[in-house]
Design goal:
DNA polymerase, domain 1; TIM Barrel; 3 domains; ten-stranded mixed sheet; binds S-adenosyl-L-homocysteine
Length: about 400
């Protein structure tokens, strides 16, 4: 809210949980141009509806508690109850004074997603269909590996990127997920696993483009990685995958230490623009230049994802070009043979073509893995998630 008082002082009242980083930046820029004096004053909520406590970051919760006269160290205690002890109400937080619990329940909820359906594949992977509060749906996929699980989560309902080979794209973007809804996918699946094989890896490779929902994704990822108060996943085991929103890459490198995966999928601009319209805005050179400048921690590499589509991007020529393009980047490569779905216009290459492509990359010393996506029989593989999108 911006109020202009008679002394020509513009007062900003930042309702912290409502404003994202981008919004604050925009408002401040506008105000500084006007030459007015700026007073920033974080205030508590003035909302009628209670907010989901998972929507706010640890820093925001500390500020809110301070504002309410509660010692900030209580924040860790509260978050531990939510993320590590899976509390569903503030009432159970018995090591907090009654008044604090009451205050929290007056302002917040601790929501869960409604599990609408769980499908299990022959290969053991499991697809969760979650219904959101507004009746929209998203999907998450739990993938069993040798001795742990990987969970693939969504960042948006639908997607605006219009990648030609991806089923999620067909329904367009419905809306961004809130930070709470992103974190909830992980928190709720952990509860469902009831201590069976450990969930250790999180990939944001489900529905949506994570960097197009930046503020919520970064908040969620930081809660997922928060080791003393949040879900405690190692940032080494969290991967954000992007179609190539170059304008956000530097932000991601600054705001987190999670792994970065880039869906490259082609080695020339004509093919990439045909497959991924975002390439018209950020062509291959611009994208790879941003990758080369990305602040990587020691021993980390950027994962380059490459969906192999028969006759489109799977030639040996393509493989050779890829090795050259990636030279300035500390990269490893994931080859994903195209996963078909009803009505798609692509095909998966023959196994010998995939093997020949891989061989060229390996010979150039790139660590290359062919990712045969699991869960094909339940439409849970890469690019097959639709979550009733067509009718939501
Ligand atoms: N928007 C993000 C994350 C979602 S897509 C991104 O583009 O990275 C996750 C991965 O699935 C991407 O690498 C994408 O290229 C791949 N993918 C999409 N459709 C596919 C399909 N039909 N077969 C195989 N991989 C697919």
């Amino acid at each position: 809210m911006i109020s202009n008082d008679c002394k020509n002082v513009v007062t900003f009242i930042l309702n912290l949980p409502c404003f994202g980083y981008k919004a604050v930046k925009r408002i401040l820029k506008k105000a500084s141009k006007s030459g007015a004096q700026i007073v920033i004053q974080p205030v508590s909520w003035r909302v009628n509806k209670r907010s989901d406590i998972k929507d706010i970051s640890r820093d925001q919760l500390v500020l809110w508690l301070k504002d309410q006269g509660v010692q900030p160290y209580r924040c860790v205690q509260i978050m531990k109850w939510i993320y590590q002890r899976q509390a569903d109400t503030f009432e159970v937080m018995t090591d907090l004074a009654k008044e604090i619990r009451k205050l929290l329940s007056q302002h917040f909820t601790i929501s869960r997603l409604k599990t609408s359906q769980i499908e299990t594949s022959q290969d053991g992977s499991r697809k969760y269909l979650f219904e959101l509060e507004d009746g929209k749906y998203v999907e998450s996929v739990l993938i069993p590996e040798k001795d742990h699980y990987t969970l693939c989560i969504s960042s948006q309902v639908g997607c605006a990127q219009r990648c030609r080979f991806c089923l999620t794209a067909k329904g367009g973007l419905v809306r961004n997920l809130t930070a709470g809804e992103i974190v909830a996918q992980v928190r709720d699946v952990i509860l469902d696993l009831k201590g069976s094989m450990r969930l250790t890896n999180i990939v944001l490779m489900g529905m949506g483009e994570p960097l197009a929902n930046y503020d919520n994704v970064i908040k969620a990822v930081n809660t997922i990685a928060d080791s003393d108060a949040g879900l405690g996943f190692s940032s080494r085991r969290i991967t954000v995958s992007t179609a190539g929103l170059v304008s956000r890459l530097a932000d991601l490198g600054r705001d987190s230490t999670v792994n970065l995966a880039i869906s490259l999928n082609a080695t020339d601009n004509a093919t990439r623009s045909m497959l991924m319209p975002i390439n018209r805005k950020y062509p291959i050179e611009t994208l790879l230049d941003a990758c080369a400048r990305y602040p990587l921690l020691p021993r980390r590499r950027i994962t380059i994802e490459y969906v192999l589509i028969k006759g489109v991007n799977d030639s040996e020529e393509n493989a050779k070009r890829l090795t050259n393009l990636l030279r300035p980047i500390r990269a490893k490569i994931n080859l994903i043979p195209f996963n078909p779905y009803e009505g798609c216009d692509g095909e998966r290459p023959e196994d010998c073509v995939i093997a020949a492509f891989k061989e060229i990359l390996t010979r150039s010393h790139y660590t290359t893995i062919v990712r045969y996506s699991k869960g094909q029989d339940i439409s849970a593989a890469c690019g097959q998630l639709s979550a009733n999108l067509m009718n939501s």
